[in-house]
Amino acid sequence: MVVITLLIILIIIALILIYISNNCLKVTRYIVKNNKIPESFEGLKIVHISDVHSKIFGKNNYKFFEKINEINPDVIFMTGDIIDDSEKNIKGYVNIYKELFKRYPIYYSIGNHERKLGYNKYKEYISLLKENGVNVIVNGSTYFKKGNEKIKINALKFRENMQPRVLTTQKKDKYINYMKKKLNDIDTNEFNVLLAHDPENFEMYEKLKVDLVFSGHVHGGLIRFGKVCLLSPRRRFFPKYSYGKNTINKTTIITSSGIGSATIPIRLFNRPEIVEVILKR
Q1: pTM of the model
Q2: C-alpha distances in Å from residue 92, one per residue of 105, 177, 243, 269
Q3: What is the DSSP annotation of 135-158?
Q4: Domain 2-280 adopts which CATH fold?
Q5: Confidence of residue 2 (pLDDT cuts 50, 70, 90)
Q6: For the chain, what percentages of helix, strand and coil (3-state, to nearest 5) are there?
Q7: How far is CA 17 from CA 22, 73, 270, 274, in A?
Q8: What is the DSSP letter of 230?
Q9: Closest CA to 34 of 198, 193, 202
Q10: d(CA 168, CA 155)
Q11: If I label 68, which of 29, 78, 86, 108 is the partner at 20 to 30 A Cα–Cα?
């Protein structure tokens, strides 16, 4: 009887932990310092959202939007997989976000689940985003301006930022040059942001000489123990740059643990996350 009671208690605790890990939103804050940040961008608040996978928090997603409105960001970056490839009601899903799209400037890069929607659904989804004022950057660059000053927003769609299967030096160099052409090269005198869904290419992004990268894709790992990502959605153990803030030379990457789940619908010790970044000179 004692054993059965203990087993029931353990199952209840496990279910509570799984519920919290999948449904209790958190906000993670970072400060990024760089002397290339224009004066008018001092203290700029960025919200970074990634890997929502069509997950909804409360009626009409009000809990999710409430968290964002509490931050009241100057700009929002979305780095792919906001919609899940299994989503049937594309228009209905976009409509949920309409108030958010009206309230904040949003820059959006493409993830693998947008690409997996299929040609017609993909076109419908991207068109609806643009109709609602979202700056969708498939491959290329644009600017976010404040008064007479600006920062450059670069983006690569998932196919262009997926890691090559064979990581020879020759392959890496070829791939880096390919990404440079897609971005029309980088002016290193400007403060450059890169939105790129897959963080596992960070060492190649650094070669582009961008200043700040936003990524997701790995979901912070299906299972985390403190700073250690045990397993990624790709079923890879201990993936590199899976979460948080990392720096190589003068390039910093911020990887979100994301919001929802995809192929393996579970998260453990890894709550859904909205990222807030504050820029400082």
Answers
A1: 0.92
A2: 21, 39, 31, 31
A3: EE-SEEEEEEEETTEEEEEEEE-H
A4: Purple Acid Phosphatase; chain A, domain 2 (3.60.21)
A5: confident
A6: 35, 25, 40
A7: 9, 30, 10, 19
A8: E
A9: 193
A10: 24
A11: 86
Length of the chain: 281
Domain boundaries, the chain: 2-280
E strand spans, the chain: 26-33, 45-49, 75-79, 106-109, 135-136, 139-146, 149-156, 192-196, 212-215, 223-225, 228-231, 244-248, 251-255, 273-280
CA distances from residue 132 to 56, 91, 121, 128 in whole angstroms, order as listed: 19, 11, 17, 6
pLDDT per residue over 222-275, tens digit each? 777 777 776 666 666 777 888 899 999 999 999 999 998 876 667 777 889 999
Distance, CA of 110 to CA of 155 (rounded, Å): 8
Distance from chain centroid for Cα 96:
19
Alpha helices in 137-242 (DSSP H): 158-161, 169-182, 202-207
Structure confidence by residue, pLDDT tens digits, 12-28: 877 777 777 678 899 99
The SS3 of residue 19 is: helix
| Identity of residue 195 | L
Tokens 């600017």 sit at which residue?
143
